[in-house]
Amino acid sequence: MSVANTLPEGLEIREIDDPKYGAEIAELRFSTYQYDTLFSRMYPIYTDPAGTKSWMTTREITIMKMKTTKTAAIFDTTTGMMLAFIKLTVPVELPLEGSAAENLPAYPEGFNVPLQNKFRSLLKASDKYYNKQADSYIGALYTLPSHQGRGYGSALLSWAIEQARATSSRIFIQASPSGHNLYLKLGWKDLEKLTIDLSEFGGETYPIYNMVKEA
Ligand SMILES: CC(C)(COP(=O)(O)OP(=O)(O)OC[C@H]1O[C@@H](n2cnc3c(N)ncnc32)[C@H](O)[C@@H]1OP(=O)(O)O)[C@@H](O)C(=O)NCCC(=O)NCCS
């Protein structure tokens, strides 16, 4: 059964590579951050929402132009609205032409650089699990908060698994707490649980799960 058939009528999954979708992807990503104890502390979503969205849009457009990642989204076919999206990086020929980070705009005012550095160094320590030339990697999966729990995340993950099968044997993921259970259900296995201590930023701890699935 094709992935699209698992969605209710009136919805479709489309692969997208046009930078014109950058603003919509940024808006969708932004809409989930208030519910996330890490990202709500990292991005100035309350003090500078417009600056944050604008920075995120530029970032998304930059990444979409690089074409190292496949993006798919679920659209409402009546309104054209994007309801969920996923980003899948398939095995890449190294060296890459330059990293997206080199071309990114300056962070918005109020961006929590120390927290982001902490987050990045933790993720870097996970590089040992992920072979960029052989594995696929799910770099983002977001569903609009008002549309979660309806199977959209699962449908996009099925799409990603089908794509990954063509080029790789394993699909690596660094899962947030809200995605962890879903990945377990769909066959991913835990490799390691990491935690970010948010106490200096007024929070508690935030878990991240290194996970892998045979494609
Ligand atoms: C993780 C995320 C993308 C999941 O998206 P989603 O569209 O809600 O995913 P699904 O609807 O397929 O699955 C969510 C839950 O609903 C259940 N579900 C799926 N289809 C369902 C249906 N038709 N009716 C009722 N429940 C359903 C799933 O089994 C799953 O249950 P679980 O939470 O116990 O695992 C979403 O929570 C999100 O955007 N989170 C914030 C961003 C984030 O952290 N992303 C993960 C990055 S690693």
From TrEMBL:
One Pfam family in the UniProt entry: Acetyltransf_1
GO function terms (MF aspect): acyltransferase activity, transferring groups other than amino-acyl groups
CDD domains: NAT_SF
Transmembrane segments: none
InterPro entries for the chain: Acyl_CoA_acyltransferase, GNAT_dom, Trichothecene_AcTrans
Domain N-acetyltransferase: 137-215
SUPFAM superfamilies associated with the record: Acyl-CoA N-acyltransferases (Nat) (SSF55729)
Top-rank taxon, per record: Eukaryota
Coiled-coil residue spans: none
Name by which UniProt lists this protein: N-acetyltransferase domain-containing protein
Organism encoding this protein: Penicillium chermesinum
